[in-house]
Each structure stands twice: as structure tokens, then as C-alpha cells.
Amino acid sequence: MAALGISSAAIGFNTITIFRAKSAPRRLRTKISCVGWDPEGLFGSPNTGHIARLEFKRRLEKDADAREAFQRHVLEEKERRQALRQSRVIPDTPEELIEYFLDTEAQEFEFEIARMRHRLDKDFFSQLQSELGQLRFSVSKTEEMEDRLIELEALQKALLEGTEAYDKMQADLITAKESLTKILTSKDVKATLLEMVEKNELNRSLLALLDENIASAQSSEQKQAVAFMEKLRAAVLNPSLSFQIMAKLGLSLLLVCSILHMVGTVDSAAARNSAATSFIKASCRVTRYPVLCFQCLSGYASTIRQSDRQLALTALSVSLSRARSATVFASKLTKVRGLKPREHEAVKDCIENMADTVDRLSHSVQELGRTGKAVSQDFMWHMSNVQTWVSAALTDENTCLDGFAGRVMEGNVKTAVRRKVIDVAQVTSNALALINRFAAKPRH
Fold first, then answer.
1. What is the per-residue pLDDT for 263?
2. b vs e for 115-140, b when ≥16 Cβ sit within 10 Å of the residue's Cβ?
């Protein structure tokens, strides 16, 4: 139900912009500044604030082309954000989770807090505090350390405020559901509303839940439910008129059941996520690294649900994302000073192997996507391609590691590359196991 949507208004805390250090240009966000230089008046006067928004709204109402363009832009932005959310790899450790949030776009920050709330625990904040302590009490601070300190302090403040606001919102949502159920099942609505006024139980959370249920009923064209809940909303806003309002409306048992079903969607959504999480955990048992499998995929429970195809596709997407990350990491290593000639050559070979991995996994994602409506024979052909390419990608990853064999290659470079590539190989192995599982499922 829409009531579960996490929006800026719903959580209600101030977003803190986190600026990346100057010494780490890869992390900087594009910043657009207005310099006020427009001698020919090409751009017109700047439009900001409430009046500008009203003007923009009036223009949209009058101009059909502008309205269509705006709606198209909104849809494209929504699709971009959805794709971004699905492509992000859920980190495994508190250290990686810190970097994950530092690289999160400002408008996605609240969503990520909601998605990763279960990981923002005591261990995470202890790790964040530990790194802050090391930077604060360092004997000799570099400019890079100062920038890092500012970043982490801003991040800590944003996450503490964000988790507090999210927890409060969740508690308010549960309370609002109970209050709405209490009103709907009451034999004397007027007395119930007046009693709730005395206890200060008629609050914004209840109104927000009513609004979300009204919107949900409107989208499914349940006109009678919409009419009732709008009357109920008016009664909540003005309890002294509740008797006249509710008496005019009349309420059937069937309508009460229908509305209670919509209100209960909060519990149903939570139950679906719980079922999806259990499905992912059970499915990961067929993999070689089940703990890693669950860690990587549990964050996508709402997308995977209980679909074997979506599970395999998500696992493959995670593998592709990590392979790309490892390729970029290896490419940067070639620019590090002091590399031994054999190390440099091994890293270059590894980059080629990982580039092949990325290419094969990318084709595999596309091919697996084509199995949605494929009939039996076509399905097996597509799955055979995917299995062949993912197996070849796994071979490429192992070939990369072979280049660092022997004692002569021991050192920091080998350790760093092995850690990255082994991680890719493990998630790729898991993805292949889930693909094989999906391919073996009988199709009707």
C-alpha cells in the first residue's frame, strides 16, 4: 500500500548534504552554481519559492505540451531512481556500509535509511564512532583527513536523525492503523472520536494513513469506500460534527471489511517481505556460499518476492556490478607507483580477464531477461546460453588469480586483487547455482 512509501515528508528530517573530500575526486558530486551572469537576458529572472511553484503549476494547467513534458520527465526520473536502487550492491561490512552511504545521492538518502535500517545497528555506529575518534585524535592531520572527518561527522548526524525519525514514523504508522481500526469497528463512532480527542489520539499520522487509503481506493475505483473515508476524515478533523456526518453516510458490513482490508495492507506488506526473505534464505542453501548469498540478496526481498527467475536475475546483476567494480579497481592499480614489472603485467592480464567477465555477465543478464515469456524450447535455449556464459565468466575470474601464483608475487598488490576477484568469483558461483536451480524447475 502507498502508506508504506518512504518520502521526505513522511520521515520529516532535514537532509544534510555530505561533501566529498577534494583529495578524492571520484567521490565528488556535480555541483551547479548560479553566477548571476546573463547580460542578454536569455534565461529570464530566476524562479524560486512558493510563488514560482504556483506559477509553474498554472502554466502546466494551461499548456498541454508542457504538462506532457513534465509528466514524461517525472516518469523518467522515477525509472532512473528505480534502476539505480536495483543496481546498487548491498555492502557486507560496517566499513563498506559507511562508504555506501557516503556515495548515496542526497534525494536517495531517506530511502536508503529505510532500506538499510536493519544494518544501522550498534556495530555500525560503533565502527563509525571508532573511525571518527581516530581522525579527531590523530597527532598529525592531513588535509585529506580533515575532509574525511567533516564527511563522517555530517554522515553520523544525518544517520542518527534519520534512523530516529524512521523509527518514530514506523511506530506512528502502527498506532494510526490501530486507531483507524478502532474507529471502523466502533458501534458509536461519535463517542469513539470524542474519546480519542481527549486522549490526543487524532493526529497527523492517522490523517496521513486515511489519505493513503483514500488514494489507494481511488486508484482501484472503490467509490463507496472513498466516499466513506472522506466523510470519516472530515469527522476526524472536526469531531463535533461526526454524528451528523456518519449518520448521513451509513455503513455496511461489506464496506467495513473492504476498508479494514486496505488498512491491513501494512501488515500484509510486512508479511510478504518476511516470506520473501525466508524464500531467499532457503534458496541460498543450494549455493556454495549461502551466507554471502543471503547477505547480497536479502536487501532486494521486495523485488525478488518468491520468484525463482527474479532471484536468479538479481544474483546475476549483483555479480555483474561487483565485476565492474573489481575491473575499475584493477585499472587504478596500474597507475600506482612502485609496481614491480611482473605485478604490473599480472594486473593488466587480470583487467582483460575481468573485462571479459563483465561482457559475459552483461550478455547473461539480457539473455535471462528474455526468458519471461519464452515457451519451453526457447526457454531452454536461452538458459543454456546463460549457463555457458556465466561458467565462462567464472573461468575468467580464476584465470585472473592464476596470474598472481607463486611466492614471487606475494605482497599488497596480490592481496588487494585477490580479495576483490575472490569476492566476484564467489557471488558469480552463487549466481550460477541459482540459475541452474531456476533452469531445472519444471515449466507448465
1. 47
2. bbeebbeeebeeebeebbeebeeeee
